[in-house]
Design goal:
alpha/beta; Rossmann fold; Dihydrodipicolinate Reductase, domain 2; 2 domains; seven-stranded parallel sheet; seven-stranded mixed sheet; 16 strands; 22% strand
Length: 394
C-alpha cells in the first residue's frame, strides 16, 4: 500500500520481528472488533522492506505499510519518521547495551505518544527522566510494557492493592516460566543471553543490592496445568520500577524454563567471559546459530508462558487483611501473548485520541512505568490480556 502522511495511526518499530509482528496482529484484531473505535491504520518501521513483505504476507494484512527506520540515524531523522502518527510502539530489541531513549525523545519532539517493550532498567530510567518534557509536550508514554516486564508489573500493583496497600506490604516477588524458549525468535534468545552478563537488581530492606544472575534457585508453583518449576535470579526492570512506584522494601525476580537442559545451558553461558556476553552482535549470532536445535526442542515442549506475583504482608496488621496475595496467569504461547499484552497497552494509550476512540483517556501526559498506571487503565489492560489465558488468577 502506498503511504501518504495521513495513512498511519500506529507505527510499530521493529514490527518485522517476532514481538513486533505479534503486536501488529493484535492491534489489528483489537481495533476491528470494538464498535466504538476506528480500525487502526498500521505501519511497520524497520530496516528491511523484504522482511516487511514477508511479514505482511504472513499476517495477511495487505493494507499494512512500511516506513524505513534506522534507530542510529539521529534525532532529526527519527522525528521526521514519527511525525504525524498517533502512536509509536517500539519493539526493536534487544534493548540491552543501549544507553539513550532516542526514539522516545523523537516522539516527544514530534508530539507523538509512545510505548516500548524495554527490558533494560538503565534505559527505562533514562526514559523516565524525560517525563517533564513529555508533560510539557502533552504526550503520554509508557515504558517496559510487554508481558514481562509490563503485565507482570500490573499484577504487582493489583496484588499490593488486594493485600491492603503499600503501607502493609513487606515484599513483592516475581516468578516467570517458559516452556523451552516460549517459541521466541533469535532477538529474545539473545536478550536472555545478554541478561546473563547483567547483575541482578534486588531490593532488601529498602536497599538496592546486586546479585549474580542465575543463582538462588527456588521451586515455584505456577498453578494447574504448569506445576512447579525451578527458577533462578535474573535481572528484570519490574523490580526497581515496582519499588519506585509502590514503595515496597523488598523485591526480587526469578525465571526458569524447561526442559532442565535449558537451565543448565544458561548456567553454563554465565561462565563465558563478560566482554563476550555483553557483545550484542556476538550474542545475536549465537542465538541465530542455536535456532535449529531451539526450534526442535520448542516443538517438543511447547511455548507456554507462566507468571506469578506474590505480595507478602508485614504481618503486623490485625485488620483481617490477607497475609499474602498470589496472582497467576498462564498463556499457551509466549510470542502470541507478548504481542497481546503490548497491543493492550497501546490500545489503552489511544483512548480519548481524536478520531480513534471516544472513550475517556486513562493515561495522562508524562513517562510512566506500568506499575504507576491508574487502576482504571490497569483493569482495562488486564481484561484484554485475560483473553485466551489458560489460567487467570488475578
Amino acid at each position: 500500500m502506498k503511504e501518504t502522511p495521513s495513512t498511519v495511526d500506529v507505527l510499530v518499530v521493529g514490527g518485522n520481528g517476532r514481538v513486533g509482528a505479534s503486536t501488529v496482529r493484535w492491534l489489528n484484531r483489537l481495533s476491528r472488533r470494538d464498535a466504538e473505535c476506528t480500525p487502526l491504520r498500521l505501519a511497520i518501521g524497520g530496516r528491511s522492506r523484504a522482511n516487511f513483505e514477508a511479514v505482511s504476507k504472513r499476517l495477511d494484512l495487505p493494507e499494512l505499510v512500511f516506513r524505513p527506520v534506522d534507530l542510529e540515524a539521529g534525532l532529526e531523522s527519527l522525528v521526521a519518521v514519527v511525525r504525524g502518527v498517533k502512536l509509536v510502539v517500539h519493539t526493536a530489541g534487544p534493548f540491552q547495551g543501549r544507553t539513550q531513549p532516542d526514539l522516545l525523545r523523537a516522539c516527544i519532539n514530534a508530539g507523538v505518544p509512545y510505548c516500548d517493550v524495554c527490558d533494560e532498567f538503565s534505559l527505562s530510567r533514562h526514559a523516565k527522566d524525560l517525563s517533564g518534557d513529555a508533560v510539557a509536550a502533552g504526550i503520554p508514554a509508557v515504558v517496559s510494557c510487554g508481558i514481562w516486564p509490563g503485565v507482570s508489573a500490573l499484577m504487582a500493583a493489583e496484588a499490593v492493592q488486594k493485600l491492603g496497600g503499600p503501607e502493609v506490604c513487606e515484599r513483592v516477588e516475581f516468578s516467570f516460566f517458559t516452556a523451552g524458549t516460549g517459541g521466541a525468535g533469535p532477538t529474545i534468545v539473545s536478550a536472555t543471553f545478554l541478561l546473563l552478563a547483567s547483575r541482578v537488581l534486588n531490593y532488601v530492606n529498602g536497599w538496592l543490592t546486586f546479585k549474580e544472575p542465575w543463582t538462588e534457585r527456588r521451586v515455584v508453583d505456577f498453578g494447574a496445568g504448569v506445576g512447579s518449576h525451578a527458577c533462578f535470579l535474573l535481572d528484570n526492570p519490574d523490580v526497581p520500577s515496582t519499588v519506585e512506584a509502590l514503595a515496597v522494601a523488598n523485591c526480587a525476580s526469578r525465571f526458569g524454563t524447561a526442559p532442565g537442559i535449558w537451565n543448565s545451558l544458561f548456567a553454563a553461558m554465565k561462565l563465558l567471559p563478560s566482554d563476550l556476553l555483553v557483545n550484542r552482535a556476538a550474542m545475536q549470532g549465537l542465538a541465530l546459530f542455536s535456532m535449529p536445535i531451539i526450534r526442535v526442542v520448542d516443538k517438543l515442549v511447547g511455548a507456554t508462558n507462566a507468571m506469578r506475583v506474590d505480595a507478602v504482608s508485614k504481618g503486623d496488621c490485625d485488620s483481617g487483611l490477607p497475609a499474602k496475595v498470589t496472582l497467576r496467569c498462564v498463556h499457551a504461547d509466549l510470542e502470541d501473548c507478548v504481542g497481546q499484552a503490548t497491543a493492550a497497552f497501546a490500545i489503552e494509550m489511544l483512548r480519548g485520541r481524536p478520531g480513534l476512540s471516544p472513550a475517556e483517556q486513562t493515561i495522562p501526559a508524562g513517562v510512566w512505568y506500568p506499575a504507576e498506571l491508574q487502576a482504571k487503565a490497569r483493569n482495562n489492560i488486564l481484561q484484554v490480556v485475560s483473553e485466551k489465558a489458560l489460567l487467570w488468577e488475578i
